[in-house]
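Q: Could you fold this chain for me?
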Amino acid sequence: MLLSALRRPSLLAAIGAALFLIAGASHARAEQICALDLNASGAADDPGEVVACEAGEDTDTWSCPLQRVACSQEPTGTYSCPLGAEHACITPQGGGTPMCSPASCTATSSSEIVDEPVADDPGAPADGLVDSQGNCLGSIEIFAGRALRCRPPGLRTTFSNCCKDRGKIVKDGMGSSLASLQTKIAVAKAVFTGMKAAYVAFKAGATAGQAAGAGANAIIAGFDPASIAISLAVNFMVDFLLSGCDQQDMEVGMLRGSGMCHEVGTYCSTKILGICVQKSKGHCCFNTKLGRIIQEQGRPQLRSFNAQGWGTPKAPYCRGFTPEEFQALDFSKMDLSEYYADIEARAQSQIQVDIKEKIDGFMRATGQ
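A: Sure. Below is the predicted structure, expressed as structure tokens.
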């Protein structure tokens, strides 16, 4: 198991680094940070492009180490920055020649660090009344999706890739056709609960293997283990313990890896002094892989989606089809080979593995 190979000091060091970059630390050298697009990519979201500033000789001044150069002394005895008069010359704390950098420093709690709000989209609600036969009397959406985002490497993720596909953790086809999206959300939250349980156990002194067991048991207790690939979920938890990824990153990682998400595009979600230091990828995630495929190939057939398409990366447009739109779809023009290949690949041996996982999960949960 991957987790058993980890060592406690390395895990705590990684978590400490995440807390340092995300929340800021209390000691002096972490009070201000600076960012610079060193590779001309259009953003400072690569390792080494966001660093802690160093305190100057005057405790109220800070110096950015990125592309820092020595200032030139004028005949009057003052110093000027060769990069331009707009860049201040800062004397190092230990004394010496003043230095300047093209990047400015800002406090970690400053309003100059701007985060875009994260959309919390619960998906299509169960709205309206039902008749005596249970038929919905309100609006109906078929293959409705949910707007979610994940974050590639950047400042807020401690340069971990929170959009990385981690295998097919969530199994397709579970849950009823109307409630299955909420089921997928419940699965994601169950794995998140397991991740927290593993971390708590680890902090309390458990070995890496014991922490993994605590996380797996928490998943099983919170959800039907037949719906999740338990071994992948445990490895998934470890990856997230070693990163700055949050719960929504984790949900997208599971659903996207399971083939249930359509990527809408990338946008800047965090800026420092106007410089992008963290990007996000907007997605529409659906209840099944089949739902995602039909949405991708059905929308171009309908005029009602022409104006908005998939929306914007920051605000994906993930609504489902109305019954009228669904009836208008021409399935003969759709390529469903991706879905058929999945069905063909699900051999008898894989079904037997699923059954074994369910039995083993139950036995672990009941201590037998």
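A (continued): The chain has two domains: 25-107, 113-125+139-366.
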